[in-house]
Amino acid sequence: MIFDLNFAEIYVWCLDFQFENVRFFSVHLRHNYFKMKTSTQSRFDTRLSKAQKEFFEYAAQLGGFRTLTEFVIHSTQTHAAQIVEKHQSILQSKKDQAVFFDALMNPPKPNTNLKKAVARYNKATTKK
Q: How far apart are CA 37 and CA 44, in angstroms?
């Protein structure tokens, strides 16, 4: 299906169809010279009211940012990091609570070192 082919594939297909004797050369070109460069960045679009845009531009100027985009990226990145950190600390504290509660409700049996420590404590604190 020709509609799913990118530019390089269409070019090679045309060469193969018209010039049978340059097929290998055209395939070589396709793989080495006609690769499409892909962007590693993404795009994010949003709609703002005029008042919001003016407010954000004013805040960006006050904050010393060169562009509104720079300000928005910095602000959202900072706020997102705070939200993630808060969420992770809540999850960790819930896990810690569960471990602590489990240790209180189901304490492990004392090992030999603990028994020796109790014996030393009792010996040191008992009156003679």
A: 20
